[in-house]
Amino acid sequence: MTEARFDEIVHAPQRLRILAMLDAISGRVEFAALRDALGVADSVVSKHLKVLADAGYVSVTKAAALGRQRTWVTLTPTGEDAYAAHVAALRDITAGHPRVDGPV
């Protein structure tokens, strides 16, 4: 059972959607597929991937294929744990018993 832990990095809507997509496929996804699924500009996806990569939640690799550079994004074990903990925290909050980590 994953311990519930609210994560400000995960919580941003686009980052949450990126992690949810990666978690659902348990693999890697191409940058263009993320961009299209999110319906945002390349720069928006890049910005959020940088934050996730800096936190160690995703790995980003580039490879040449058919004469063009492709970027692939993979959910790391650290990212899996952070995503699962955040989803558990959201479930606690929506169930009416939020976890409080300090003075209110």
Automatic annotation (TrEMBL):
It comes from the Bacteria. Residues 15-93 form the Winged helix DNA-binding domain. Gene3D superfamilies: Winged helix-like DNA-binding domain superfamily/Winged helix DNA-binding domain. This is MarR family transcriptional regulator.
